Amino acid sequence: MPHTCESKAISRRRHELFLETGKTPNRGKIFIETHKRSNGSFVNDAARTIGEQIELNMTQCDTNECEVSPNDVIGTMLGAEHSRRVRCMGMGAAPSNTFRNSKGRLSDPSASSSSYSASSATYNHFQQKLMRVESQLEDTLNVLKVYVMSKEGSVPEEFAGLFALQPQPNDAENELTSPVDVRGSSADNNANH
Asked: Which domain of life does this protein belong to (predicted)?
């Protein structure tokens, strides 16, 4: 079926519509925009028939207009998508990457539960990793604070925000031993000689 985009990519036309309206256009709107001439007529009778049905379905539809799914206006009007492309989405859009989060894809309960357990395991892994990194960051900030205080005598104003959430080293329960305190200062060594 011919369209009116000529050499302009559908994704580019989609972006232009977004800039004009401020909303992401759905596939039905893209079909209508790319199959109408500048005078408002459709390119042929087949496009007119499909376009009118899409307009009718879009006015009756209560779901999110921007949702791209196999069950949206285009999916119900034109049927299942080709295995390697999705209509009205432009180059690179395939069902495997476009409908990834669609509810219609997970019709098999075993696929749904395995997907959930895999995502749950991934979530737990990243949660543990985050806790480990936060602990390492806290340790590093504590060491840095002790070092700065040993050199400067106090925390400079520039670093106050960095150490604001860290425990104060002069708190009795949180006191850290400075590496300088353990080995002694060079002033102590010079006094003995």
From this structure: Eukaryota
pTM over 0.85: no
**Measured in Å, how far apart are the chain's first and last C-alpha atoms?**
96
Model pLDDT for residues 151-167, shown as the tens digit of each residue: 888 888 887 777 765 55
Q: With the C-alpha atoms ordered 11, 17, 18, 19, is the resulting torsion angle positive or negative?
A: positive
Q: Mapping DSSP to helix (H, G, I), strand (E, B) and coil, where does residue 42 land?
A: strand
Name the phi and psi angles at 115, rounded to 5: -65, -40
Helix (H, G, I), strand (E, B) or coil at 36: strand
Q: Which of 177, 126, 178, 132 is nearest to 151 (CA)?
A: 178
CB-based contact 127:49 (threshold 8 Å)? no
